[in-house]
Write a structure and sequence with these properties.
Blueprint lengths: L20 H9 L12 H31 L4 H25 L2 H15 L7 H10 L1 H15 L3 H9 L17 H57 L5 H54 L5 H29 L1 H6 L3 H7 L3 H17 L16 H5 L4 E6 L2 E6 L3 H14 L1
Antiparallel strand pairs: 1-2
Amino acid sequence: MLAGKRYRPRLADGALAPMPWPLILYRNMNHISWPLEEGSPRWTRRMENMLIFLGFLVFCEHNEVDTHYLIVNWRDMDNMLAGMPTYLILLEMQIRCFQLALHKDKFRSLLQRFYRDIYVSEENEPKLFARIQGQMLATRINSVVYLVALLNFLVVPIQNVIYHRRDMLYKQVYPFDNTWLPVYIPLLGCNYYIGLVITSMLFGELNVLGEMMMHLNARYVQLGQDLRRCASKMLIETGSWEIAAEYRRALTQILRRNAALRDFGEQVEEEFSFRIFIMFLFSAALLCALFFKAYTNPANNVAYIVWFLAKFMELLALGMLGSILLQTTDELGTMYYTAGWEQVVHKSENVEENLRLMRLLTMAIQLNSKPFFITGLKYFRITLTAVIKVGWVVDFVIVNIKFNLQFQIIQGAFSYFTFLNSMR
């Protein structure tokens, strides 16, 4: 209804920014998370808030009937775990979606800054742009897998017609007769609504975060290239008395760009940190439940297999992108140290400017001694290593007894699966 009023990113020159297809779907399918255009009329904002509130009620209704299913089947592990994945995904997405809904204006401001200052266009930097597209390939594939997982739910209505049933898309127990047709059709529609919102949030936010990280990474790569070219050019074109001062001024501009990139990165982390933490918090249990159902009866649980692959790929893709950004920023200190400044100092005859340049270089190396990385509420870094094994320690001291709770994502999920499989 309000798709035409939703924010459309624009470049620094005011032109509409090209959006990859996962972001187009995210913008059109998820009214809860994607912001409106800046300066939208009051009636549009009120309509948006009303639709978000109705969406929240639908999520709460699904939460109740999903929880009821788990309570009814808590003595039957197979049946209970059949409903556990959808319940965990529902709960995780409800937290992430509506946390973002409360801060959509900040999210729009971040998108505006990204496309104005950070985005690397294909026209200006075709090689860097092609490199970014290659780095984002994993997230695009993951988006396809999530859409395939969503399409699996189209089988349910077909089976209902063939076998004269009125099953819901998810494992749910209602406190009333939900098979009565005037009630069943709206409830089935709510099932599909939840599926669209959840799926678009899963692949949409991954692609938004991935785009920001890889374009930021490309800007850091540009920074290193400009720094190296700066010294080489001045050694040829600038005289011995002015070269140190010219190089210091050029280095100051590069440091300002560096600070702006770091500031944008911190803004990205502030925006996504909580939702990343929630994602990782649910991932181990979710992967465990999905893998258990896929392993115990793969022929009848194709949907669980696809969802497991999608979630597994999502975590690996996010970790891979985080590792790329971490590696690039980790080399910044070395980049300043090996930028050819010693040749500039050797050529320069201005001792005072040489000292100023050396002090500035020392500060640059110190400021970039720590790499930049996205974290989940400062508990863990988003890297490939952290995805495979994320650990943090929560200490509780009660009557001088210290409990260390370590949470692991993929390794933890398979450990939980082994335990559940032994209980069958």
